[in-house]
Amino acid sequence: MNSHRSSANPAADVPVDAGLPQHVAVIMDGNGRWATQRHLPRIAGHSKGVERVRGLVRACGDKSISFLTLFAFSSENWRRPKREVGSLIELFINALDEEITKLHQNNIRFRVVGDIERFGPKVAGRIHKAQEMTRDNSSLVLTIAANYGGRWDIAQACAELARRVREGEMDPTAITPESVETYLSMRGTPDPDLFIRTGGEQRVSNFLLWQLAYAELYFTPVLWPDFDLAQFDLALASYVSRQRRFGLTGEQAEAARRA
Ligand code: IPE
Ligand code: IPE
Ligand code: MG
């Protein structure tokens, strides 16, 4: 497990990895291509993708991974054909209705980050209700990024800080990485240790820009509907084989790990 260990050595307070990641963040990409390859409508790929989400949530629970964050719909995905956008929202809401009781029974906290009001009051209301229902659960925090953009997130945090400065509640010199973080949507959640993107593209596509600063990046050509537990294990194996240095030398990082 990751931990923040304090010691007298120069690597004190550096997160130390001796095992699996505590927080996994995933860009689930490739649904459309998976469907097109099979001469199916793109939405068939998105449906199959939802099944993979179920499997991944279960696997994280089994492996005692505490945080799973999934990119479901980006602020740029509104540019897609209206029909695909509508189907994606419908799929999301149906999956939520079907799964929320099970998530709750399994002690999973469900949370959405992103500007959800844009989905309309009905969808936003369902999300608020699901969040409220599961808010005290503690086995896994499942965060879905929906109508989320990393730049939007940082900008809304800046706006809140600016408002506090204008009201005289805060001095500009108090704006630090730590204070910015308290206004980001992922506040209170440790940064992702492992970032996975399926579907072959090697980019971040405006996902958790701030929070990915020191994540280990894992890209796979496997399309999301084919990302099974064996694939997840490959990603985890890649992660555990790496040395996370956080700016230290390799020797310092190793000393920190052993401390
Ligand atoms: C990811 O799959 C799901 C969403 C973006 C909602 P895509 O739909 O982007 O699949 P490709 O990249 O077109 O294959
Ligand atoms: C990123 O995938 C967003 C989600 C998986 C929800 P995209 O398929 O939208 O990313 P780009 O457009 O290829 O960068
Ligand atoms: Mg894509």
Number of helices: 8
What is the rounded distance between the termini?
A: 14 Å
CATH topology: Undecaprenyl pyrophosphate synthetase
Strand and helix order: EEEHHEHEHEHHEEHH
Topology:
Blueprint: E1 3-4, E2 15-16, E3 23-27, H1 31-37, H2 42-62, E4 67-74, H3 82-105, E5 108-113, H4 121-134, E6 140-148, H5 150-166, H6 177-181, E7 194-197, E8 216-219, H7 229-240, H8 250-258
How does this structure look, described?
The protein has a single domain (19-149, 191-258), classed as Undecaprenyl pyrophosphate synthetase. It is 42% helix and 15% strand. The chain has helices at residues 31-37, 42-62, 82-105, 121-134, 150-166, 177-181, 229-240, 250-258, and strands at 3-4, 15-16, 23-27, 67-74, 108-113, 140-148, 194-197, 216-219. Helix 4 links the parallel strand 5 (108-113) and strand 6 (140-148). One 3-methylbut-3-enyl trihydrogen diphosphate binds at residues 27-29, 71-74, 77, 201, 203, 205.
A few lines on this structure:
The chain has a single domain (19-149, 191-258), classed as 3-Layer(aba) Sandwich (Undecaprenyl pyrophosphate synthetase), CATH 3.40.1180.10.
Q: Any key phrases for this structure?
A:
259 residues, alpha/beta, two-stranded antiparallel ribbon, disordered N terminus, binds 3-methylbut-3-enyl trihydrogen diphosphate, binds magnesium ion
